[in-house]
Amino acid sequence: MDDVLVVGGAGYIGSHMVALLHRKGLRVVVLDDLSTGYRDAVKFGEFIHGDMGDEDLVGAIIRKKKISTVIHLAGSICVAESIRDPAQYYLNNTAKTLSLASIAAQNGVKRFIFSSTAAVYGNPIELPIDERHPKHPVNPYGRSKWLVEQALPDFEGAYGMQYMSFRYFNAAGSNFRLGLGERHDPETHLIPNALHAALGQRGCLTINGTDWGTPDGTCVRDFLHVDDLCEAHYLGYRALMGGCRSGAFNLGTGRGHSVREVVDTATAVSQSEIPVAYGPRRPGDPPSLVANPESAMTKLGWRPTQSDLRSIIEDAWIWEQHRAGGIALEDLAEVQQVA
User: Fold this and answer.
1) Of 153, 77, 53, 170, nearest in space to 112 by CA
2) Is 292 helix (H, G, I), strand (E, B) or coil?
3) Which terminus of the chain is more solvent-facing, meaning fewer CB atoms within 10 Å of its CB: N or C?
């Protein structure tokens, strides 16, 4: 049985990743500083409270727990915040990640799986985007991730630590059956914010820009269920175990949905009116980001099976109702039966 360290395992994606690894029979250790994660989201494995930039702590964990794989899911994720405070992003996403990778390599970790982002591509030249697309990130968030991606092949060449970089498009949805879902503070993601508006927990949902060069004038994004995203990481881990070469993979469905389409679907699922306001374009936002996921499908055998837009929003809606007090955690199993 392999021993896996999940860095950021108390966060949104990390908590789902820990649950999947546990289900697959792996021993999991979680390292998280709880700056944006939640202790109660770590349902399985061993939890250690600490900073991934603490080299002594990370080294001690790897040696004591005999860690052979690191799955790195921690970091800062908001484009607008990265423009306001780029230093935080280069510290959290670049410097601390390189520190983590360095300590991992020095202590004999064989595999390093890194959560990257579609933001490394910048404004797309062609759609859908495959992994060969030029990398011209247009915001500090994307640049902070791209710097790490550029370093990982050097780590492999010098230290023999294999890697996979997964370029996320838009993770969404929940595993409400386990009591897991999005809990960002502040929340910046479209689907939970639309559902918060449906629940009356916020004012209007702001649509940023209606004059993009897209079919309905609003931004287009590729939404992927968080459980499908985690399955890709597990398959990447298995592929490295089986001799697959290191590399980078897009994680998306290949189908884009506009902001208006998301709001319309959220309205239908929640059966509630979602008040909408219109604002200016946000700096650093590309008009359309849609993945070509063929490489992950071909090389890893991955298929996103839960990522049609309505299913994503239905799962997120159950989770948001639970958070609002409308569905008790013990009743979620019953919800599953009728969902």
Assistant:
1) 153
2) coil
3) N
C-alpha 86/C-alpha 90 separation (Å) is 6
pLDDT higher at 57 or 285: 57
- With contact defined as beta carbons under 8 Å apart, do 222 and 254 qualify? yes
Closest by CA to 325, choosing from 171, 174, 201, is: 201
Q: Is 284 helix (H, G, I), strand (E, B) or coil?
A: coil
Do the Cβ atoms of 170 and 229 come closer than 8 Å?
Answer: no
What is the spatial distance between Cα 20 and Cα 26, in angstroms, rounded to a whole number? 9
Task: Encode pLDDT of 240-295 as tens digits.
Answer: 999 999 999 999 999 999 999 999 999 999 999 999 999 999 887 888 999 999 99
Asked if residues 212 and 259 have their Cβ atoms less than 8 Å apart, the reply is no
SS3 157: helix
Catalytic-residue membership of 141: yes
Segments making up each domain of the chain, as ranges? 3-172+223-251, 176-221+255-290+306-338
Q: Active site residue: 12, 141, 234, 237, which one?
A: 141
Q: Each residue of 53-73: b (16+ CB within 10 Å) or e? A: bbeebbeebbeebebbbbbbb
Quote the tokens at residue 111. 């595999």
What fold characterizes domain 3-172+223-251?
A: Rossmann fold (3.40.50)
